Amino acid sequence: MGQRLGWYCAERGAERVSPLPPGRALAFGAVGERRCLGVRRAGRWIVCPYGAVLEGEGVKDQCPRCAQLDRSRSVAADTMADDPRPYGVYLAYFGPGLVKVGITAAERGAARLVEQGAVAYAWLGRGPLMAARRAEALLGSALGVPDRFAKEAKRAARGALPPVPERVAEVGELHRVARGLAGWPETLEPVAFACVDHTELFGLARIPAVGEVAELGGLTAGAEIVGEVVAGVGADVYLRLRSGGGGGSGSGGARGASAEGGAGGVVAVLDARLLSGWVLGAARGRVTTAPVRWPVAGDDERGAEQEGLF
Question: Is the pTM of this model over 0.70?
Answer without folding.
Answer: yes
